[in-house]
Amino acid sequence: MTAKTCILIGAPMDSGKRRQGCLMGPDAYRVAGIGPALADLGHDVVDIGNIAPDAAEAHPDLPDHLHEPAEMIGWTAALARAAEEALPRGLPIFLGGDHGLALGSVLGAANHAARQDRPLFVLWLDAHTDYHTPQSTESGNLHGAPLGYVTGRAGFHGFPKVAHPIPHENICLLGLRSVDPEEREAMQLTNVRYHDMRSIDETGIARPLTEFLADVQNANGMLHVSLDVDFLDPSFAPAVGTTVPGGATMREGHLAMEIICDSGLMTSLDLVELNPFLDDRGRTAQVMVDLAASALGRRVFDRPTQAFS
Q1: Which position among 143, 164, 195, 254 bears the catalytic label?
Q2: Is 228 a catalytic residue?
Q3: Which pLDDT value is given to residue 301?
């Protein structure tokens, strides 16, 4: 694939949910070698370090049960700005941090795409739909609300304005297996594309992904990929606080990433919900680094086995 400038943006945020540990994620990716892995593929790698949230206050109209709303508003503003600054220079890779970072990364990508007069498409690789609003989430954890926010659902008082909501038909969710009833009811009223694990078991992961990417290409769209650790089965990716059995296998994960790479369409990437405190000797961080490498050009024949040499 064509060499890119990959811009690593650390977002050590843990405010999207109550279980702590994701703030260690960015450094875990670095220790697992994400920079050298991408450089070995011929990409220029620029690591801007970890960013910090803007100073912010919680809006009085937000529900009282929300977890850290002021910090979430601050992170959203800072991440959107970071995305808008990075996208003209290369392919930003957001090292999370919980999935609440996508409120900002997708918002910034949408703003940049609008300036380019191109549509933004979002590929959501996750066990959950993350389609809540501040009012609908029973837990108060806003890592379950990014898609609700960037599609323009109401109720995000005090958050940066979503000037360019993502059309639902421009979103594809793969790997679903844990969806709250309110989210299900609201999403089924839209034309968002969603594929749960039963659908993937029946038809495979390649067909729905390839069809979605064809639409991105036909629309001259930009593509934001948001990869949550819990997209994967916890048997080999345990370092996430929202484990749901029955996730994508290692083979399905790499196939999806290689198909994304083949398309040449990805313009930004989230790596989220890695909680190193829950990991087993760093193996989940390594899996996520390997998947990112597959999305950016690594192939099986680039990694010959040494077992019989």
Answers
A1: 143
A2: yes
A3: 56
Give me the percent of the chain exceeding a pLDDT of 90.
88
Is residue 158 within 8 Å of residue 56, measured between CB atoms? yes
Catalytic entry in 228, 233, 252, 258: 228
196 is catalytic: no
**Helical segments of the chain, H only:** 25-31, 34-39, 69-86, 101-115, 146-150, 181-187, 197-203, 206-218, 250-263, 283-295
pLDDT at residue 303, as a whole number: 47
Q: Which of the following is catalytic: 68, 71, 130, 183?
A: 130
Active site residue 128: yes
The active-site residue out of 14, 126, 233, 270 is 126
| Per-residue pLDDT reduced to its tens digit, 261-306 | 999 999 999 999 999 999 999 999 999 999 999 999 998 655 444 4
Domains and CATH numbers, the chain: 5-300 (3.40.800.10)
107 backbone dihedrals φ, ψ, rounded to 5°: -60, -45
Q: Is 143 among the catalytic positions? A: yes
Residue 130 among the catalytic residues: yes
How much is the pTM? 0.95
